[in-house]
Design goal:
Blueprint: E1 2-4, E2 7-10, E3 13-15, H1 23-35, H2 54-73, H3 80-92, E4 95-96, H4 97-104, H5 108-120, E5 124-128, E6 135-139, H6 141-186
Helix pairs in contact: 2-6, 3-6
Length: 187
């Protein structure tokens, strides 16, 4: 929190004075700061809030898992979102933005931003599609080398999580995530 004139500014807004800042605001600030850390969660799972909301639980697990993958993939100069797109293009060989957006269940704006970075890095090539609006993306040779460089780091991230879950937990997680994704897309 910093002082600006007669107001104090926090991550959650402006408070006219300390008296107007409730205990809830402080707790929310502490939780926000903690969950957005790039450091892996070190506290026991008992420290986690029992959240009644499916969305908040899924967002929390996604943040925690993303930290594991980003931590490993950072060694190859990638984030998990970038690695995901590169591996999707490896599997499909070539895809338009609509196909990539549907395959990742991601909005077009976010996908455009990530694809732009991959294009600037020279990891992806683009060519016109059947009409003027369609663009087809594929891995460049440089992109193929980047995937090969990142693969062992991704495997380490997978192994870290798989070790903690065990084989049965791993299979159960994969099935549950698949069912949840399909249900959410259909809802």
């Amino acid at each position: 929190m910093r002082q600006t004139g007669s107001c104090k500014v926090s991550a959650f807004g402006v408070f006219s004075n300390e008296a107007t800042r409730s205990c809830f605001d402080k707790a929310a600030t502490d939780v926000y700061t903690y969950t957005m850390s790039r450091q892996p969660l070190k506290k026991k799972s008992a420290a986690l809030f029992d959240l009644p909301c499916a969305c908040q639980n899924l967002r929390r697990v996604t943040r925690a898992v993303t930290r594991i993958y980003d931590e490993e993939l950072r060694k190859a100069g990638l984030e998990v979102t970038q690695f995901g797109l590169l591996t999707a293009l490896t599997a499909t060989e070539e895809a338009n933005q609509k196909r990539l957006s549907e395959g990742f269940a991601i909005d077009s704006t976010t996908l455009t931003r990530t694809l732009g970075l991959l294009l600037r890095q020279g990891w992806v090539c683009v060519r016109p599609g059947k009409d003027r609006r369609e663009r087809l993306f594929r891995l460049s040779q440089r992109g193929k080398r980047k995937v090969a460089e990142a693969q062992p780091h991704w495997e380490r991230a997978e192994q870290r999580l798989r070790t903690k879950l065990g084989d049965e937990g791993w299979q159960s997680m994969r099935q549950a995530v698949s069912r949840i994704t399909e249900a959410a897309v259909a809802a």
